[in-house]
Design brief:
The complex is a heterotrimer of chains A (351), B (79) and C (371).
Chain A lengths: L29 H15 L11 E5 L2 E10 L5 E2 L2 E2 H15 L3 E12 L4 H18 L2 E10 L7 E10 L16 E4 L5 H11 L15 H9 L6 E3 L5 H13 L1 E6 L7 H10 L13 E4 L4 H10 L7 E8 L5 E4 L5 E4 L12
Chain B lengths: L4 E9 L7 E6 L2 E6 L11 E5 L2 E5 L2 H13 L7
Antiparallel strand pairs in B: 1-2, 1-4, 2-3, 4-5
Chain C lengths: L9 H14 L4 E7 H10 L9 E8 L1 H4 L2 H11 L4 E5 L13 H6 L3 E4 L3 H10 L4 E8 L4 H14 L4 E8 L1 H10 L7 E5 H7 L5 H7 L3 E4 L3 H17 L4 E3 L11 H10 E8 L3 E10 L8 H5 L14 H5 L23 H4 L4 H9 L12
Parallel strand pairs in C: 1-2, 1-7, 3-4, 3-5, 5-6, 7-8, 8-9
Antiparallel strand pairs in C: 6-11, 10-11
Classes of the chains: A alpha+beta (351), B alpha+beta (79), C alpha/beta (371).
Chain lengths: 351, 79, 371
């Protein structure tokens, strides 16, 4: 491991690592990445690029598919703007869309806690149906298990999805090139704040609702317009900063971001100020970054702006070549700082 | 230390000194804040909030003075 | 947001940076006391805007960083008792005591909950009368009024299943301890604007006089910090040593009397251990005898546990402004936010964590360099 560097994915873990799973392992930050490298990739990956991107691209008898899975453990189950059901559908639809695929079919596995009111399950399922309809996907298979009271948080959902990929479409960090423009389709921080406020009973009045939404239609529009999509990713857990750091490291480039180009809604801003949270690290569910050649940026931007949640869509930065990948944020008052992944989840602070 | 954020008092409830509280707006959100330490605060005032408590009212005149002083700074040498 | 955005004006920031360069004729070393100011400085790159020779040291104003390891150990020990709910601010959760952190204790089954206000902890106590609720009361004078109110309400309402592990610390004794240390380099201070909002700044006047150091009460936004730095530098250049108030929209000379009155009723001043620094007389707060029943140390009968284990952590020197994080041989390698050796790396505005997150790839002159 090089002195003072981040943690390259192939580094053996230094001693002193804990031997039990901590919440931070699920936080989308460094600890989660290290867990993947320590436990999952050695077991399952057959090439360095396996298990790195949001979904797997598969060739089955000459036809190309994207395949992905995601589990949803959000608390509370219902929050402004959505619930675990709409999250579960949109999240997997979006992971497929991030592969450039046209989402087709989903499966859903439910782990229900003994004592969960069936009425809540009805609501979640109705929400999933509505979300699937809006996203144009069919839920075709599923499974149900029940665990003892106290062994689950009411309800957990896993969804897996399959989508079709046209030939020649293969967005991935490795396609990112120096000179590429980085675009973001809207404002950041809504989902994480909405869920945190609901979960912790922060008593925040104001319009903070999750931005959970299906993104496939917008991405198909970009593809149909013939825009060369080098990379797509949705900044969920860990926020925009974490996603950019992941891409910079996978693509081995520098990503320069203009802080003034980032849109943050007033309620999210207020919440982040009083909680001491950095919106760059707050989860989003209806947002994606797309890397395109610079001469395609304007066209791509106009497509993003036309989309339903398109207010706040912007070109937020550009890619440069690098010997050691970094994400550099060019700040509001003129100074630049390097963004890193957090070790775990970001906590509100008093100090 | 001490993350404290200015917000505007929208409503005030309660007469009891210890539990007097108000709805305070921070940008686009509103939160309940204990106003026991700012007995002089009225609706419309800005207060500085830390750990769920208003610890002072913001002096609007002083804020203006500070901004004016800031804006007057000239890059040339000050004698 | 009003009273925030105006103080982040980029054009004014640039003009202030230029003015600072104009008035500076020699090297000076200043210290900002407050961890929140450190956070702002690093986040906005304020120190990148200062002329070479002007040094900003990051002081011990991070109550999370200076909370003694033994307090954290005690919190963990009590939290690990069956039935106890431990409530803590988010920043404290990851700080390691002499063994693990509160978060690690939670992973092992302790009921540890994050709260935003001591009143949230009191509410939990009201809602679960069958369980003991313990609030880990840390912070400087800014936060002490919030703790005081929780105690006052608990006493008035007869909430008996509520107690506090109090570890509040006071700033002026820390400044004096810094100034009397033989290796002190600090020539001027930016005093903590929110501490002074509560306490006023009278108590800094004898310090400025006795030690001949300018002390400028400073806010937290980029323009506040630059103006505070400007005023401090101007005093240094002119050979003055006074207390000035940059943060006048929030700070008055007498501070908040109402808050101070309740603090006097609830707390008594006592000696206090500061992590990485040692004991400083009359620098901490404890509950008065009248409220002793709310003192977790009394209620749970836990005596002090281990002292801090020796590590290569140099947090103490960093807190005193004698070293920067880069000077530490373990910085970024054996000591990282994921595996911190000391509190300055864990706390989000500990100097080491701030440097690691925002700066570890930059050279000291502030230029972004490749690793």
């Amino acid at each position: 491991m090089t002195e003072g560097s981040g943690f390259p994915l192939t580094c053996p873990l230094p001693g002193g690592e804990g031997d039990v799973i901590e919440l931070a392992h699920g936080g989308g930050g460094l600890l989660m990445h290290r867990l993947i490298d320590r436990v999952f990739r050695p077991a399952f990956a057959t090439s360095p690029s396996d298990l790195v991107h949001d979904g797997a691209v598969l060739d089955i008898g000459g036809a190309r598919f994207a395949f992905t899975t995601d589990s949803y453990v959000v608390r509370p189950l219902f929050f402004p703007g959505g619930d675990i059901g709409s999250l579960a559908v949109n999240g997997t639809v979006n992971d497929l869309a991030m592969c450039g695929a046209h989402p087709l079919f989903l499966s859903a596995g439910f782990i229900l806690e003994e004592g969960l009111p069936i009425e809540q399950l009805h609501k979640v399922v109705a929400s999933m149906r509505a979300a699937a309809g809006a996203a144009g996907v069919k839920l075709v298979t599923g499974d149900t298990k029940v665990v003892e009271h106290g062994k689950g948080d009411g309800l957990y959902v896993n969804t897996a999805g399959i989508g079709s990929l046209r030939s020649g479409i293969a967005p991935a960090p490795q396609q990112v090139r120096p000179g590429d423009a980085v675009l973001l389709n809207g404002d950041i921080g809504r989902h994480g704040i909405a869920v945190l406020a609901a979960r912790e009973g922060l008593g925040l009045e104001g319009e903070i609702a999750s931005d959970t939404a299906p993104l496939a239609a917008t991405i198909m529009e970009l593809i149909d317009a013939g825009i060369d999509l080098h990379c797509l990713r949705d900044p969920t857990r860990g926020g925009l900063a974490t996603t950019l750091v992941e891409i910079a490291e996978a693509a081995q480039v520098d990503i320069h971001i203009d802080e003034s180009a980032l849109a943050i809604s007033e309620p999210v801003r207020g919440a982040c100020e009083i909680l001491g949270l950095d919106p760059l690290y707050v989860a989003n569910e209806g947002r994606f970054v797309v890397f395109v050649p610079s001469n395609a940026a304007e066209r791509a931007l106009s497509i993003l702006c036309r989309a339903e949640q398109g207010a706040g869509a912007a070109v937020i930065g550009q890619v440069e070549s690098s010997k050691s990948p970094s994400v550099v944020l060019h700040g509001l008052i003129g100074a630049a700082r390097v963004l890193d992944m957090l070790s775990g989840e970001q906590f509100p602070r008093i100090c | 230390m001490c993350l404290a954020v200015p917000g505007q008092v929208l409503t005030i409830e309660g007469e009891d000194a210890l539990t007097r509280q108000g709805r305070v707006a921070f940008g686009g959100i509103v939160k309940q804040v204990n106003l026991a330490y700012v007995p002089e605060a009225t609706v419309g005032d800005y207060v500085l909030v830390h750990a769920g408590f208003a610890i002072t009212t913001i002096d609007a005149e002083q804020a203006l003075k500070t901004l004016r002083y800031l804006a007057e700074i000239e890059p040339e040498a000050i004698s | 947001m009003k009273y925030i955005d105006e103080f982040r004006d980029a054009a004014l920031v640039r003009r202030y940076a230029q003015s600072i360069a104009r008035i500076t004729t020699r090297p000076w070393t200043m210290m900002e006391i407050c961890g929140g100011q450190t956070h702002s400085i690093v986040r906005y790159g304020i120190d990148q805007l200062l002329p070479p020779g002007v040094s900003l040291l990051h002081g011990p104003g991070c109550p999370v960083c200076v909370t003694p390891a033994e307090s954290i150990d005690m919190a963990i020990a009590i939290a690990s008792e069956a039935g106890v709910i431990l409530c803590s601010f988010g920043d404290m959760l990851r700080v390691p005591g002499s063994g693990g952190s509160l978060l690690a204790a939670k992973a092992r089954g302790a009921d540890v909950r994050m709260v935003y206000s001591p009143l949230d902890a009191l509410r939990i106590a009201r809602e679960t009368p069958s369980r003991e609720v313990l609030f880990f009361a840390i912070g400087f004078e800014t936060t002490a009024p919030a703790t005081a109110m929780a105690v006052a309400q608990a006493a008035r309402d007869g909430i008996e299943n509520f107690s506090l592990l109090v570890s509040h610390v006071l700033v002026p004794p820390a400044i004096e301890a810094l100034l009397t240390a033989p290796d002190n380099q600090v020539q001027g201070f930016l005093a903590a604007g929110h501490v002074c909002t509560v306490m006023g700044y009278r108590e800094y006047e004898p310090i400025a006089r006795r030690y001949r150091v300018p002390i400028v009460v400073t806010g937290f936004e980029p323009l506040d910090l630059l103006q505070g730095i400007y005023l401090c530098l101007r005093q240094l250049e002119e050979g003055r040593a006074e207390v000035e108030n940059q943060y006048s929209r929030s700070v008055r000379r007498d501070g908040n009397r109402t808050a101070q009155e309740l603090m006097r009723r609830i707390f008594t001043v006592q000696r206090q251990r500061w992590r990485g620094i040692g004991e400083i007389a009359a620098s901490g707060l404890g509950l008065t005898a009248e409220y002793a029943r709310y003192d977790a140390r009394v209620r749970f009968g836990h005596t002090k546990t281990a002292t801090e284990p020796p590590t290569e952590c140099i947090a103490g020197m960093i807190l005193r402004g004698l070293r920067k994080p880069h000077d530490c041989p373990a910085f970024g390698t054996r000591c990282t936010p994921e595996r911190p050796l000391g509190a300055t790396m864990v706390s989000s505005e500990g100097a080491c964590a701030a440097y690691y997150r925002y700066r570890c790839h930059m050279a000291d002159n502030g230029r972004v360099v490749s690793r």
